[in-house]
Amino acid sequence: MIRFEKVSFHHPNGQMALQDVNLEISPGEITAIVGENGAGKTTLVRHINGLLKPSEGEVSVLGMNTRKVSIAKLSKLVGIVFQNADHQLFSDTVSNEILFGLTNFHFSETASRQRLEWALEHFDLKDYRERSPMMLSGGEKKRLCIACILAWEPQIIILDEPTVGQDYFQKERIREMLVEQRDAGKIVIIVSHDIEFLWPLQPKLIAMSSGSVIAHGAASEVLSREDIIQRSKLITPQLLDLWKKVPLEGDPPSDVKEAAERISKLSTWI
Amino acid sequence: MGFRNANTVIEVRNYSFKYASSDKETLHDVNLKFHEREITILVGPTGCGKSTLLKSLIGLIPHMYAGSWSGSVIIDGVSIQDRKINDLALTVGYVFQNPENQIFMFSVERDAAFGLENLGIERAQIRERVDWAMSLMGITDLATKPPHELSDGQKQRAALAGILAMKPRVLILDEPTSLLDPHTALELIQLIRNLRDQLGITVIMVEHRLDLIARVADRLLVMENGTIVEDGKPREVFGKNSPSLRNIGIPTITRLYQALNSSRPTGNVPLTVDEVVDLIRQKQRTVSA
Amino acid sequence: MYWVASGFIFRRTSSPIHDLDPRVKLLISIELFSLALAASRMEEVALVFGSILTLALIGRIMRRLGKTVLFALGFAVMIFLINIFVGYPLVSAVEVAARFVTIVGSTSVFFLTTSPDELEHVMKWFRFPRDLVFAFVTAVRFVPVLLMDALQIMDAQKSRGLELDKGNPLKRIKNFGPILVPLVVNAVVRSGELAEAMESRGYGAVKKPTTLYGLTTTIKDRAVVLGSLLLSIPVLFFFIVS
User: Fold this and answer.
1) Which chain A residues have a beta carbon less than 8 Å from that of C1?
2) Measured between CA atoms, how close is B102 to chain C, in angstroms?
3) Is the domain B2-91+168-249 a CATH 3.40.50.300 member?
4) Is the pLDDT confidence value at B4 over 60?
5) What pLDDT, in 10s, does the model give residues A136-155?
6) How far is it, in rounded angstroms, from Cα A189 to Cα A212?
7) Which other chains touch chain B, taking contact as 3+ CB pairs less than 8 Å apart?
8) Across the A/C interface, how many CB contacts are shorter than 8 Å?
9) How far is CA B261 from the centre of its chain?
10) Is the confidence at residue A80, as pLDDT, over 90?
């Protein structure tokens, strides 16, 4: 459980970045944070592993007050995959890149080996284990970054704009990974404005605007509100848009397959 | 197909390129003609050679990259391998993926002037063209702003203004919307379409977000392993049941249409929600009648 | 996050000093600099320092000048101590230290009121090679960008359990590897992209590039040049003779 209580944050120069944020995020669901650039999404996320401490209010993560615990201790429980892969890759080989976190978090030799093998296998990086991370393609780099974090099995996984610059194939893999982590009972948080990517996941949505949370709820509810769509600089997901425009009965479908089944039941579609 | 009659602006002829650091060709025997006033979108999985192709169209490849090549890229009847890149700047404008790395100067207007200054254009004409380019991009009021005060969307427009001031006939863009939120991305795409409509500029761009932009494209090229595997209007290309389409992000709404019509997969498919709304309403009417 | 980099950014302000032609500002700075060098007695140093303060007041850069002077004071104290140590009399040691602060202050008048933009024009006016001027422009332009890179890299690695201030001195130095490697790689990649963007915008196409803006001198600028020369040359002469 992550809890934000009356959290405000301002930079040392006085600039306000978060304003009276109250939130609860529970395990077993995917939460997506949306909003235009500068709305406070990354500032919010940096509070969860203690990179930033609230100026006012309190952030508690798995029962711990982030002010009282070190970043390192929190990071073992909260894994953040930052947007730019080139901001984190530094090792000579893919294996060492994955081992970096495991060593920092004092995994034993055998446990490290085991987790490394799991990560290489699970993220399809086995053939690259001795390769330099710098020589990988954009998609492979992103996969490696995610592997590096998931290797130490954090309870909370946060991804900052994971789909930027990724092709369709990579996006599908990231989506599968998110679902898998959710089903394993983790707290999964994704910062993204790739609305067509998010929609099939049917996440809880947190919409932000100038440092405040302006909506928090089921994706279909939040995205049905025109004012939220406008203030978050989003556009309505196509399936939801279709359902509202025709209009069709029932909750909007989450994926193409379900939509097709329900429409063909309506009329005998040739 | 109407566009076959239009004038060819750039021609790629039997073109192959291999990076010095790689052991196989990144582009393999590509043959393409880009036509005047057409918006062409290039898609394909990462590593298929899209960026290499784009950079070859302005001579950055092979001029600035070590590698071997064969065939030619021809602009105005001259092979660009025989021309200097800065000589091409007035014909082909290139907008890079990250606007941050192409804004050099301390203010929007001075950056818009950068290319013209380099070409030795006289001051009065620079002034005129810079003002024109900024007003086209709707950033006149940002003229004296330094780059770090601009939002991502504004940076992208500033970068575009710097290219447009040179009045190129061809505009090449490498994933111009990848950093933008959907709303701002849509605005930018609209702006690019206006450039084509008003100025007759030929547009060639790489994009992954087909949900947003397939509808403004005249032509869609699908690349795979260094070759062009599909080429046509987006509606036609999506309508084909080609396996190469599995790796590109066909718009959700188009996939829905295809799922509903799995028995007859060919033909012109819809690209927007509104088109499918109409189709469903028609259907409902015929059923109830 | 941006606030961190803001210290490195020149803010455009307007004041009677800021609005002068940058060459005039440079001239004033040089005059003050020469006066500070030539001043040998305490009251002479005080006169020059007073003039600097007056200009700072008009140019509304008191606070920033204050920071610079404070910084220089640190060095001044050191100079003072060395002088005492070597056996100079107390008065002359104070004088040397005060002169140092004044010299630093005189250059600040130029650097605190001149934008990178203007500096670029001045460099061009002095016929610095184009590549050098451009290197200066990009360096200033990308300092905040690289700083942001560095901050993001630090956040990313801290989130992977890197503790910069843990361990023995050797370990601490090693701790900077995960920060420095991505920083350098990013800078190299960025400069490669910059080079391509420069090339595609015709950099180096003609020998004599034109400019959108040049330096223009107004009547006011000329008056300031004349006035400041009329004031400073006799004083300078007096300082040297005395």
Assistant:
1) 42-43
2) 6
3) yes
4) no
5) 988 899 999 999 999 999 99
6) 17
7) A, C
8) 72
9) 31
10) yes
